[in-house]
User: Fold this.
Amino acid sequence: MSLLGKAAVAMWWSVRPAQRAAFGDWHSHEHFPERMSIPGFRRGSRWTSTTDAEGFFVLYELEHYDVLTSKGYLDRLNAPTPWSMKMMPHHLGMIRSQCRIVASFGGGVATSLATIRLSPEAGREAALQARLSEMLGALAQQPGLTGAHLLLTDTPRTNAPTTEQQIRGKDGAADWIVLLSGYDADAVESAVIAQLAPSVLHAAGAQDHPTVGRYRLAFTMTPQDVAAI
Assistant:
């Protein structure tokens, strides 16, 4: 999948089994349409973990970085609906990163996704970014794979936590994020194990112990979908 725009919000969290049905209903039928109605939101996708029974990954793709501090977005974050207020406390262990998209290769929307959260070693940021961009450009062309992307967290300066953040509690944040998508889950997994292995990333300039997540697509929506409802 080629990312749409220049910025993104990348989020990981857990939902316990007892709340998963209610969460899916709310997230698909209210929350996604609400977010896709905000000017500058280009696409949202929700992914279910294949290794953690409670885990989700959600990605919002934004037209440009300033959408993160736009009135339309902040107004929604500070005025959650009653249904949102009911569901937000069930977002457990939230990692929420507001990012710039610095490299994006591929096209379409695939069914399998790997996320890799990592950090550069001090002084090796430029070398790591250049090496990752080279690697991801090649990966996106491999059989079974469709997209490879690099996001760098760049949290906007805000005056105070939003109402939604206050309901959830303190959110964590990632640093650098690699996304690898494909129509063949085995091909995605093989690339993660071999070409994006911790030893390979470390040699390129990353710190040890990256965090890897594996997901399948649950739902995706664009503003055009909202207009058709």
Q: What stands out?
A: The CA atoms of residues 194 and 200 lie 8 Å apart.
